[in-house]
Design goal:
Chain lengths: 434, 434
């Protein structure tokens, strides 16, 4: 009557459905390769993109140079396990589940009788892989506990580059949106697929790690392609290094030989940046463009015509003032102003509804305002010469700070990708007994 | 250099782009009809659905029997205006902007010089209409202020059906997620398009109405079509009345002659229902199915084979127990158990990250848990014989209450649709001076 008792491994999510045809069943048990075949049975409404699969196993983790999906969930976890073996076991469970779900399968094989809880909650049944990626990260707390102790015997393996972020000028961080011993970023072109994946990974952490915070986000590609716009209404990411340029990625994003077990991994810095949207929306267009350093409509640098035109940081107007103001965001974040420092941004807009505000000056207004902005996500080979270097300058000089506040923050070492049969972070534990 | 100074009315959002070709420009000024033409210039990546337009003007408001979009934002507002004329002026601004945005245009024509704030923040530039609908509602507070006064001279026009919701058994409502004098539900197949629309409408309310709360939500249609699943992993909406059945909609959803100015409108009840997902996920499959009254995989009523099979509420097992338990959700919410009462559900799942919990019993655990669940949205001809009737029974008897908590609530009269040249709610104000 139901397929829940079916114990064949590697079933695709479509097998969950009681009405699965025998053809779908046959396709499902092929495993990875079978997904595409099973897909062809479905009648997608919103294009084939949702049936696309991003491979989980590989040299690098997915979700870093992967073309950006439309939805993201970023979660940070506090470890509660006392034994290293429990951490390793969790990473193994997570690896297997992440790979399964990236192919549109349930988190675990569905060998579920009626008198046991299902091994997958089923909230993504019938949905497609949607280019799901799961990107794991290790926070400083994996290497040294909050009490300063070497909780898992890993302190000596903490990467030098995994520094604690300094306090930046203007930071208004709230503890419940900061830090974490482990991180998971789930990205997909379907919000329900993303939420399903995060929730199943959370369930697999039961007793080992507790979720600390979670941030959702979205980004919408323009109809004609090209750079997306953020909630300030400006194109965001024009000067991002190209993910299609492997050499550039090796230079900017991927850890090299210097990294030991982190080689082929990357470091992620996330910042929850609240934007005073109501304030921004009442700002003159000309001033908005001076803040950003670019034309709002075209995205071109001030004084130029096309979005792709290089910034001319020397250009002056007839009065001798910089065409791109000295405190403009685009100028201050430019590689040339930061000894060549570059990072790969992969940010999402966020909308967390409204929050209470109380003005501390006349007219002493109180009420609700939007709690929305940018969930900044940046990958880099070394945060010391990447985000930290750039943001030290931005935090003190960027006129955009009039409109933005950093309220959440995290830094995580994202290990290299896992090969099939191994698990995420295996290199970190190599040579240690369990 | 920029098109911002262009003062031609009715520009499509694509005109915002500095690099718009002359062909696109020509298409843009045609107005509504031009959108489709301009669209043909774009190269959509995720199918043609995003270019689809849901008409704003019409007998009924959109977003009620409209095939459900994937993203929703529901916002409630408190009126701060003291004059009725200001409320009317707001509704006129909202009507025009909602119609424009439903066609993929900016909220207002872009006649923006550099020394003024843009009349549209630009966060949806380059994005498609995405079947955007905007559905307006009037809460009890429009008719009677919190002080009991007839604040706008509308008290005598309050519809009888717009009752204050009673307190239901088990309600744990929090004030900051309840009520409101006005409501707006924005639905679209693109989250950034939805957020843009709500934000621009919010800006147009400046000085007249303040946002009180906002709830985002998502729903993902299965690859093969059919009923969507909620976060409990069950198909949700199987027994919903068909929106394709006009006669049924007239009976269940649309206000008839009894409604005066509300004729062809509908009443919406919203409930923010938090689900204890971690608890649910640890519940045996068989018990989950008894709670719902349906098979999890197929959606079939217990004891039946197909999702569309009718519930057999009389069926007993060999021991004489009901096959569909007496306290199962599907039984208690069935029309036959409620004197034929029916409502049109149009719910969205929500994920608001994590929230703090503290157990008040051993082992006295504290930590973070998911703040996720169902944003229940139901339309009906009369809430007294619709949601209120059904929920009185559910609130006291539904075993699903073990896993769900109603924390937010609202009721709003959604007036009929506006005809072009008129405005939403015009009938309410007919015959009143300004």
């Amino acid at each position: 009557m139901s397929t829940h008792d079916d114990s064949a491994p590697g079933l695709s999510r479509r097998r969950f459905l009681g009405a699965a045809s025998s053809l779908a069943v046959a396709a499902g048990v092929i495993g990875t390769g079978g997904v595409a075949a099973a897909e062809s049975l479905a009648k997608p409404k919103a294009g084939q993109a949702l049936s696309a699969v991003e491979p989980f196993y590989g040299l690098h983790q997915g979700g870093i140079v992967t073309p950006q999906q439309t939805h993201s969930l970023f979660a940070a976890f506090d470890l509660e396990a006392t034994a290293r073996a429990d951490v390793i076991a969790l990473l193994k469970r997570w690896t297997i589940a992440a790979n399964r779900m990236s192919h549109g399968e349930t988190a675990q094989p569905l060998t579920v009788p009626k008198d046991a809880a299902p091994l997958d909650g089923g909230s993504a049944e019938g949905l497609r892989p949607s280019r799901l990626t799961v990107t794991f990260g290790f926070g400083p707390g994996l290497f040294v506990g909050s009490d300063g102790k070497d909780r898992y015997g890993l302190a000596s393996r903490r990467p030098e580059a995994l520094v604690d972020l300094p306090k930046f000028n203007g930071d208004q961080l709230v503890a419940e949106k900061c830090g974490g011993d482990l991180s998971i970023q789930v990205c997909a072109d379907d919000p329900q697929v993303a939420f399903h994946a995060l929730r199943e990974l959370l369930a697999l952490a039961d007793g080992v790690a507790l979720i600390k915070w979670m941030q959702s986000g979205f980004t919408s590609p323009p109809a004609g392609g090209g750079t997306t716009r953020n909630l300030m209404g400006f194109k965001d990411g024009t000067n991002n290094p190209s993910t299609r340029d492997g050499k550039m990625m090796d230079q900017v994003v991927w850890v090299g030989d210097e990294g030991g077990w982190m080689k082929a991994g990357s470091y992620v810095v996330v910042r929850r940046i609240r934007i005073a949207l109501e304030h921004w929306d009442k700002t003159e267009l000309g001033f908005q463009e001076e803040v950003v350093g670019r034309d709002k409509a075209s995205g071109a640098p001030l004084g130029k015509t096309h979005e792709s035109d290089p910034l001319d940081l020397e250009a002056q107007d007839k009065d001798g003032n910089s065409v791109i103001p000295d405190n403009a965001h685009a100028r201050l974040s430019a590689a040339s102003e930061n000894d060549g420092a570059q990072i790969l941004r992969r940010a999402y807009s966020y909308n967390d509804g409204v929050g209470f505000y109380a003005e501390r000056w006349p007219p002493w207004r109180q009420g609700m305002m939007l709690d929305a902005g940018l969930f900044f996500v940046a990958y880099q080979r070394d945060p010391r010469s990447g985000f930290i270097k750039i943001n030290k300058k931005l935090a003190t000089q960027d006129i955009m700070n009039q409109f933005t506040t950093h309220v959440g923050s995290g830094i995580f070492a994202c290990p290299p990708g896992a090969s099939e049969g191994s698990f995420i972070g295996a290199g970190l534990f190599e040579g240690l007994e369990s």
